[in-house]
Amino acid sequence: MSSLYQILHIIPSRLSLCDLAGSERCKDQRSGERLKEAGNINTSLHTLGRCIAALRQNQQNRSKQNLIPFRDSKLTRVFQGFFTGRGRSCMIVNVNPCASTYDETLHVAKFSALASQV
User: Would you identify the CATH topology of the domain 31-116?
Assistant: First the structure.
């Protein structure tokens, strides 16, 4: 009889891809809608950085857990399940190798180093 029964193991999973669009510097002449969009992108990325930093602090100091500001941005609300669940996250970082963007590249490298520790 055992040959008639098969045990099925179903593992639910989810794959989400998100392009963070990069941080937007306002060195060029932007106005109106483009300037507002750049500001919104920077605000979301800043909030993501704060969430990652708070998560890292909570990992290091388990006795005092800090509030993680997931609710401060739509982006971080989307990512909340990835950082608080049992899932895995992977970040792919793309930087510009030009010398003129050294400061931005360094900032992105530091951000990704912090994110890799969470």
Answer: Methane Monooxygenase Hydroxylase; Chain G, domain 1 (1.20.58)
Rounded distance, CA 117 to CA 104, Å?
Answer: 21
Give the tens place of pLDDT for each residue, 41-90.
888 889 999 999 999 999 999 898 989 999 999 989 988 888 887 777 78
- 17-43: burial string, b at 16+ Cβ within 10 Å, e else: eeeeeebbeeeeeeeeeeeeebeebee
Q: How many residues are listed for the chain in this entry?
A: 118
- Would you kindly state where each structural domain of the chain is located, as residue ranges? 31-116
Our separate counts of H helices and E strands in the chain read 3, 0
